[in-house]
Each structure stands twice: as C-alpha cells, then as structure tokens.
Amino acid sequence: MPPFVQIATRPEDDVARTERDAVLAFTGLDEDQLLWARLDRDPFPDLAADEIAGIILCGSPFTVSDPVESKSPEQIRAEAEIFRVLDQVIAEDIPFLGACYGIGTLGTHQRARIDRTYGEPLGAVEVELTAEGREDPLIREAGLPETFTGLVGHKEAVHTLPEHATVLASGKTSPVQMFRVGTRQYATQFHPELDVPSIIERARAYRDHGYFSPDEMEDVFDALRHENADEPPKLLRAFATLFAR
Q1: Does the pTM exceed 0.85?
Q2: What structural domains does the chain harbor?
C-alpha cells in the first residue's frame, strides 16, 4: 500500500509531535504508513500520485487570510508549499482531508472567500450534516450521525464557497463546517484529529494566540470536559480505510 502523507505546519516540535501521534492513533496507520511533511521548514516530498494513498493536513497557528505583510517567513514558506501540493491534489485527483487550517487553505485554493466573519472561540459546537453530507461516501464510511459535537477554535472560516464546492456539514455560528470539492478532496472546520483531552493540551500550548482569553482558560477547559466529541475522529479512520490501496 502506498503511504499516506501528513502535512504539518506547526513550528513547535512538541505540539507537532503530539499532533502526529493523534493522527496515527485515529487513522490506525503505522509510522511507516504515514509520511510526515513539515512544510514550515521543508519542501513537500517529490511524490507522484500513484505513490500516495492520500494527504492529511491538520490545524496550524497560521491564518491564511491574514495580510501577507503580517505573515512570518515560516508561514509564507508553508503556504507556498501547500498551494503547490493542492495544485497536484486537484490535477491528479489525490484524496485530501484538511482540518481547520486545511479548510482555509483548500478553500483559498478553490477561490472560496475566507475571512474572520465566522470565527469561533475554543469550544464544542453542534455540527449537522446536510442532505449531501448524509450521502457522502467518506461520511457514510465513518458512520457519522446527522448531528454530532465538533471541537473548534479558529479565527477565520469559510464565508462563501464557489459553486463547484459541496457543503457537507454546517453549524449555527460557522455555516460551513465541512465541504468537498471534486469527488475526494475534503475539508473540515472542526477538528477530527482532536478529542477533548487533546484539544485541552493543544490549547495550553496556544494560550496566548488569541483563541480565548487566558484569564478564562480553566473555565473553558472545565466546560469542555463535560463534552463528548468522539464522532469526528472516525473521519480519519474512514479516510485511511476508504482510500488505502
């Protein structure tokens, strides 16, 4: 089986490693089945479509819709690489699943409007599948219910999608929680690579990044501990199962 590739854009080594461990756990893949591409520091590996089973892009401290002049050299390098990869993904129909930062980058690549209108603070939200989402092969493989709890925390979100994109899931405060372009290129606003303990750990690392008030951090965490967000990670296992070859 060709390996999957996980794209990381987190400059912090400890957070990046934790994210990788979560993707390995939730996909069920072994280390040698999941290549690791840290695009904030290295180019994407030179791989042809038949050498890749699929690509997973998780969250990031970066915000794609920010003005270019405010972006760090690491972010500019990472985004240039991601857009180059997405050119290949779309042209060669490579399975792709992007989470949070992944919805901003895939959306931008596909000419969606990404801005801060529908940002959501750190927390748990209700996600509802659309009619198209209920029939989508990846969602059906994951066995997601019509409504479920998703974990979020993002400054930007999809404002408007292009006509060729399909909304698969929505939410009250962020209307596009999941979309698809083509037949197997997906992005989610919620985090399928995080459960409640891991989002709390992640949030501690980014307490000063503006996703929530640091003074309210423990109250936010206490509220999260009462949530059950076990459904979204099933998307990662489904992605690995559906596109393994």
Answers
A1: yes
A2: 4-243 (3.40.50.880)
